[in-house]
Amino acid sequence: MNIAQPPASAGSYYGKYFLLEKLATGGMGEVFLGRQEGPAGFEKILVVKKILGHLTENKEFVELFLGEARLAARMNHRNIVQVFELGEQQGTYFIAMEYVAGKSLREVVDAAQKRNERIPPEIARTIAEQICDGASYAHNLTDITGRSLNIIHRDLNPQNVLLGYGGDVKVIDFGIAKSEISTVKTEAGMIKGKFVYMSPEQSLAKPLDKRSDIFAIGITLYEMLCGQNPFHKTNIVLALEAIQRTEPSPPSEHDPALAPFDPILAKALAKDRDRRYADASEMQEDLRRIVLPRASERLTGFLARLFRPGVEERQRADVDSDSWKITGSRNVPATPPSTSAVLAAPGDDSTTAPTLVVAAPSRKDVGVRSMTPRPSPRPPPPPPPKKPAVRDAPVPGLPAVDAFVQPPPDARAAQETVVASLDAIPPETAPALEGESTDRMRRQVRSAARPRLSGRALWVVFGGGVAASALFLAVLVAWAVIDDSPAPRLRRTALVATAFKRQGTLWIDAQGSNVQFAGAAVPRQSAPYELAVTKDGGTLQVEDVRLDFSRMGNVLDARVQSSPGSIVLVNGISRGGPPITGVRLGGQETLLEVRKQGERSGPQLRLRYRED
Predict the structure, then answer these.
(1) Under 8 Å between Cβ of 233 and 239
(2) Counting beta carbons within 10 angstroms of the beta carbon of residue 447, is it exposed (0 to 12), middle (13 to 18) or buried (19 or more)?
(3) Three-state SS at 54
(4) The overall pTM is greater than 0.85
(5) Measured distance CA(579)–CA(479) in Å, rounded
(6) What are the pLDDT digits (tens) for 430-443?
(7) Neighbouring-strand partners of residue 585
(8) How far is the C-alpha of 125 from the C-alpha of 257, rounded, in Å?
């Protein structure tokens, strides 16, 4: 019996997840951008991938969907999209997984072609390195007993690689991946995956291993560098024949600057899988060794230039995530209009006499910026003594002043409203009232209070200055006569500049950890660090792991220290607890892992040293 499919649309809840918007719809499922909400304002943005209702009775498809969730849940790597939950909502399965704000590699390649440009080689190398890193992790994943799961993606292509606006590279869609825990087995002669990214053995439906994914990574790298798939043809038959028989032209034929990639792609795209890289980590190491011109921009800047409107829209969406309501609208309610005070205009008689209107301050609205008058630099005059509210007698010599003080309507009034009508008269002809203090009077008072020196006093001051100068000169002469010892000679000091010669280069892949070299912090980066060794000894600190090394010919002899109780493994072999001595770093990569007590795994460091 077909189970009714619950309606799922943007702006509604699907289980415990609020669906913000639909990202994609296919023939087998829907993908939504969702938000998980919790107590005390907790929220997490993620992706909800659900099966379409009419496919819930297709047991094989449902098992493939569940197998993807089971595989991805076992993986925890920076270059693989992480799965948070596999759930069921009213008979329909869904997966809640990590959200990557960015574009697929397919969209990036197409956008670059529309601009008549290609992905810069340095950026293409960085993307391919991280794809290899994620693929190698999946290929070598084991269960809790140490048994290899033999995971093969079988569909590695630009559409299944996500590039985040922050520089992340993530491999997605293990829906048709093959592993030891898969319950659905591929029938003989059945081909799964995109044809133009298949290996020769995959296109012939032969048994596969991890080297098939390396062939697909090689095609993806070739397309990033040259802007085209080397096996793309007008139809599937010609494409499969090209994969079996055609040798792609080296990238250097398209651009001589791509010559360092020729041997890497020739090995990755070999028809015979025995001639390919045995593991994706080997291809990753070869990509790291090639020397390329420094790119004018990084991956983040390249994506921002290609998709600037999308980057800005996503940044606004992240900032306004709190405003996404159940209606699905992202529009924030507009701020209510601010109120403004209206001042009464003076009457018609204002043409003959200026009118002063002082209004009580209006009540401020929240969020409305008010303009306050600038205070006068003059201090306010002292308040007049309180008198009965009667009409003042006219002052002789002054024009008549009609004033009326309107009392406030209640005790909450902040200021009275005063309307006064004054006859305009020249200020210089107005006599001063008793007790009036004006600027002119203050200047006159200050001028009168300043004392003046007489002629005799000036001569006394001048004579005192002359006497003081003569006394000062006499003291200088006496000091020179008494202290007649010769001045000490300055000893010349030769400054010797010591030039530190580069002895070798130390490469370390710390997977984004904090690194200190020679006592100084090294800026964090996702790519491997390239450190110059200028002395016969030094110190390298990665988190709580410390290496004290010394040069011994063309290798470094290292001593490993870490927290008490931890276990140090060198190339997968346990060497016991720290400190560990006799760790040799040379041209071959050394894998160093430090596991804390009670843990089955720990941070891994990949190190390599080369003598210059």
Answers:
(1) yes
(2) exposed
(3) helix
(4) no
(5) 68
(6) 444 444 444 544 55
(7) 556
(8) 13
